[in-house]
Amino acid sequence: MSTSPISPAEFAPLRLRKDEDRRLRAGHLWVYSNEIDTGVTPLRNFEPGQPVAIQASNGKTLGTGYINPHALLCARLISRDLEHPLSPSLLVHRLNVALSLRERLYDRPFYRLIYGEGDGLSGLIVDRYGDLCVAQLTTAGMERLKDAILAALQKVLNPTAILWRNDSRVRELEGLERYVADAFGTIPDTVTVEEDGLRFQVSPRSGQKTGWFYDQR
Questions:
Q1: pLDDT class of 216 with cuts at 50, 70, 90
Q2: Pairing with 159, which of 31, 32, 134, 215 sits 20 to 30 Å away (CA)?
Q3: What would be the CATH architecture of the domain defined by 8-79?
Q4: How does pLDDT run across 93-111, given as a tens digit for each residue?
């Protein structure tokens, strides 16, 4: 699976059936396989994680994202702005927006930085433990962007280490292998998390999900 940056020419058209664009226009970000006009854009023509331009039945482009033709939840919309499609620069922008929000909410760098759709990056989770980032890619589209995500995290946060915690069972729904791997730097066996004046010892490699219960905050 390619992990190279996306160029505009790589966005293959993905046509929806008539009226199946209603949820997207209402703000939803997912496209199911039975909503795709397979007569115009057969699913067999796509590869897992391939970047696509999602189109209404009349051919009008609704935005850009990525597809996994083998999954029921087939495509994910990442950007509605055609002047700023899914790209490495968009990843950097979304990370900066998420960082700005967290820095207003938290006085210490211990939090979930990226929470999938909530931060405009469906399929990506990033938890921050001070100078360590733990990232999880749950879709083929984000796996394909792995190198660009790593570069974006280094550019925005300049962490000392990044760990891939790609061991979630949800990856199996996307046909992806499960693994844990060092992405960058030296990963400590434990890190100290600070919450509400209390300190907790966390294992980034073996703790639940991405190490801690940030999704409960």
A1: low
A2: 215
A3: Roll (2.30)
A4: 999 999 999 999 988 899 9
